[in-house]
Amino acid sequence: MQIDLSGKTAVVTGSSQGIGLAIATGLAGAGARVVLTGRDQTTLDAAAEGIDGEVLGVAGDVTTDEGTAALLDAVPDADVLINNLGIFGAQPALEISDDEWRRYFETNVLTAVRLTRAYLPGMRQRGWGRIQYIASDSAVAVPAEMIHYGVTKTALLAVSRGFAKEAAGSGVTVNSVIAGPTHTRGVEEFVRSLVGDLPWEEAQREFMRLHRPNSLLHRLIEPEEIAHMCVYLASPLASATTGGALRVDGGYVDAILP
To answer: Is 119 an annotated catalytic residue?
Structure first.
């Protein structure tokens, strides 16, 4: 497939590393002008150096009004919005405080809602746009060790479907991507918190065996594998795909549909 995003501006939240950076790199490779977001400008600059293409790094905490305003001042319009920013971590269900529930919901859900409200009207007016929410297999198979994370990812599926209806008939598509267990630095730390400080290959095998046995890959997914789906959904080729929850989960979710 020939994917050409030349002339398009793509905002990717939480894109200084991991899945977000892989998505940004893929979009830039397709010709898009890519906007990286994160809290630290130095980290964003370092990430941008590894991307071949036009890249802008906007530092700020987009979970806050100030950080969101800084992003919108720098990039008032976007053709592609990838809501990737998210936090996760293991915690016993009965020990999750109200404040922690609020922090997860603010970061993983409301930030995406806020940016969708900001960018969707312009996309609709121009008659073209792509909005994506990076969800998780945890949205469907909520893990016992982090139900607060799972609940927020479930919410994103509903957010995505709802905004797809809001954008109906406008030339703007809205989808969520259900990412499976993915190999990032944060996940490496999470894996070791569950299986101990083993050599990485052994730790990964133990984690998949004990905590993600449904995976048909029997390994963690690489961030670039998530990015391939996101680049396709951002392209003109995906013009008839909207309101969907597309799985890049390595077959982890044991169902025909989410």
So the answer is: no
